[in-house]
Amino acid sequence: MMIWEIVPLRLRARYATMICFLPLVLFAAGCAQTAESCPPAAPVDLSGAEQFALDQDLPFRFPMDDFRNQFVTNAANFADYGMITRGPEYHAAEDIHKPAGTSVYAMADGKISYSGRMEGYGWLIIIDHPQANLYSLYGHLSPSRWSLKSGQVEKGDLIAYLGDSDENGGSRENPLRTHLHFGVRAGQMRDYPHSGQWRWMAGWVKPCPQDLGWLQPSVVITSQEIPVGDFEIPDSSFFEKWASELILGGYVVVGALSLLIFVIKKDKPYLLLLSGGVMIASGFYFSANGWKMSFVIFGAALLFAVTGLFLLLRRFINSPNPKT
């Protein structure tokens, strides 16, 4: 007898409703943020900017050439407040406005941890800089032009080109002004979740960017110093960082158990094997996009495969021998 069958029928609907609505309540609680006043972007002296690119003994450089005035004319600067499709949020990077096809360089030595298409960015590249406990983000790149896909990079290496207005996160109907969205953050990409305000690819966030580990890029570069002890990731509750990941995992677990119970009861092993294949494909998709809870999806797929094979084997063993 299944445990679910022990529960009185009149209570099953209540429990099912609670299971369905609990993730929504948790998600709303995790996403709720109070507006706060963020400190404005710091003034930056660019008088020595050219030297940052030429001097190989310096750890950082700006990601483009001819940058003397590029941070003065930003349409959206670091920690600027703006109305986005999701509501009012703060800009977690500095925008550098240049024509499509402009070369983009690595700001420091490091390793590419992500290079691919990303909604809102066109093509996106993330570079981890473990020697400085930082990672840098380069958004609105060109998916149609050459770009580095993986591997180690050195400061000043060409990594990509700016995208055209209809491929850099924009479209023919809604073109986006060509520019580089340049972010710098404490820690490494793997320290952050795929979704929520703490997501590793965030461009705009509801809390102050500084409270989520984002740093003003031009200040990091012009200071040319890594603070003693490195940058520290700000303290936060576990739920603040990982709410969306936990909700995804919860949905997978509940859905997998429900399907498992149904299939065992109805003896439908082929449905389990088919679902296992779909789960494996989903697991690779979520894993490639940085979701930490993708291991739950792979675990469910393995459970489906093992159970499906067991049911098939049991059916074969228990099937009557054909008459001769």
Keywords:
alpha+beta; Glucose Permease (Domain IIA); about 325 residues; three-stranded antiparallel sheet; about 35% helix; 2 domains; about 20% strand; seven-stranded antiparallel sheet; 7 helices
What does this structure look like?
- The chain has 324 residues and is an alpha+beta fold.
- It has helices at residues 3-6, 9-31, 49-54, 217-223, 238-266, 269-288, 294-318; strands spanning 81-84, 87-91, 94-97, 103-105, 110-118, 122-129, 134-141, 152-153, 158-161, 179-186, 204-205, 214-215.
- The strands form three sheets. Strands 3, 5, 6, 7, 8, 10 and 12 form a seven-stranded antiparallel beta sheet that branches.
- Helix 2 packs antiparallel against helix 5 (238-266) and helix 6 runs antiparallel to helix 7.
Largest sheet: 7 strands, antiparallel
CATH topology descriptor of the largest domain: Glucose Permease (Domain IIA)
Alpha-beta classification:
alpha+beta
Strand content: 15-25%
Silhouette: elongated
The CATH first-level class of the largest domain comes to Mainly Beta
Uncertain residue ranges: 11-35
Instruction: Tell me how many strands there are.
Output: 12
- Counted up, domains total 2
How much helix is in the residues? 25-40%
In CATH, the architecture of the largest domain is Distorted Sandwich
Radius of gyration: 25 Å
Name the CATH superfamily classification of the largest domain: Glucose Permease (Domain IIA)
Total of helices: 7
| Order of helical and strand elements | HHHEEEEEEEEEEEEHHHH
